[in-house]
Amino acid sequence: MQTSKDAIYSLPQQVSGFRFDDSVADVFPDMIQRSVPGYSTIVDAIGQLAGRFATEGSNIYDLGCSLGAVSLAAARYVEAKACNIIAVDNSEAMAQRCKRHVQGYKANTPIEVICDDLQNVRIERASSVVMNFTLQFIEPDQRDNIIKSIYAGLAPGGIFILSEKLRHDSTQGNELLIDLHHEFKRRNGYSELEISQKREAIENVLRAETFEAHQTRLKNAGFDEVILWFQCFNFASIVAIKN
Ligand SMILES: C[S@@+](CC[C@H](N)C(=O)[O-])C[C@H]1O[C@@H](n2cnc3c(N)ncnc32)[C@H](O)[C@@H]1O
Ligand SMILES: O=C(O)C(=O)C[C@]1(C(=O)O)C=C[C@@H](O)C=C1
């Protein structure tokens, strides 16, 4: 895929709330790579997990798929027969580009791209459901119901992979992790202005919770195992298993 450099916050501006619009979709691969520590490692490992847990005839859901990185990783690893990958995003800008992006990809497992709110998509016969940095953008009071319907739609033995930016439960710990993340962004070429304007843009849009809050929600929904399999600074990925 052609990737342009993210310079959205490089000039001083009246910062408005972050949206997944055309300007973000155009630079998204560069933005997420330079903003999320371990992004490529996480995406590839999610593909491996989807492959490992896939069963014949099952569905794999990529909720908040953006340009389809997770769906494409899953398609590379899934060997079970007659599986379907369902990629969902409610941003027109993302879903349109995602459709074009997956079209050229020839794999045994087809990828269907749906432009809709993920809450309108019924989860059924799922071996894996993935939310890779998506739940954090959804209203906190809607999160319990989303996780419950994912649990209900997973087949026994299925997994839910949840990657999120985390808030640490102490002020000191939280500030340290935020500082380390900002240093990561600086090292990836973002200026102080870009870092502070982006922080302002996502402030009321990305509502991070603690690991404990996610763990409690997953356990309450019925998941038997909740495993933190990746963390770098304030970015983490969890795999929850339904036995
Ligand atoms: C940080 S991006 C996800 C990155 C992507 N999963 C990846 O691995 O490259 C978050 C995505 O979630 C989508 N999103 C946010 N709320 C959504 C909702 N309610 N329904 C569907 N998609 C949603 C956004 O449009 C955006 O593309
Ligand atoms: O850029 C940041 O500071 C972030 O929090 C990273 C983050 C994310 O976690 O989704 C925020 C918005 C963009 O989608 C890309 C990355």
Description:
It comes from Paraglaciecola polaris LMG 21857. Belongs to the class I-like SAM-binding methyltransferase superfamily. Cx-SAM synthase family. Residues 60-158 form the Methyltransferase domain. S-adenosyl-L-methionine binds at residues 39, 64-66, 89-90, 117-118, 132, 199. There is one protein chain. The model has no long low-confidence stretch (mean pLDDT 97). Strand 1 (59-63), helix 3 (69-77) and strand 2 (84-89) form a beta-alpha-beta unit. Strands 3-2-1-4-5-7-6 form a 7-stranded mixed beta sheet, with helices on both faces. It has helices spanning 22-35, 39-53, 69-77, 92-103, 140-153, 171-187, 192-202, 211-221; strands spanning 59-63, 84-89, 111-115, 126-132, 154-165, 225-232, 235-241. With 243 residues, it is α/β, with parallel strands linked by helices. The protein has a single domain (16-156, 168-237), classed as Vaccinia Virus protein VP39 (Rossmann fold, 3-Layer(aba) Sandwich). Prephenic acid binds at residues 31-32, 35-36, 133, 165, 198, 202, 206.
Question: Nutshell version of this structure?
Answer:
This protein has 243 residues and is an alpha/beta fold. 42% of the residues lie in helices and 21% in strands.
Keywords:
single chain, 243 residues, alpha/beta, Rossmann fold, 42% helix, globular, binds S-adenosylmethionine, binds prephenic acid
Radius of gyration: 17 Å
What general form does the structure show? Answer: globular
Mean pLDDT: 97
Structural class estimated from helices and strands: alpha/beta
Estimated helix fraction: 40-55%
Which CATH class is shown?
Alpha Beta
List bound small molecules. Answer: S-adenosylmethionine, prephenic acid
* Low-pLDDT ranges: none
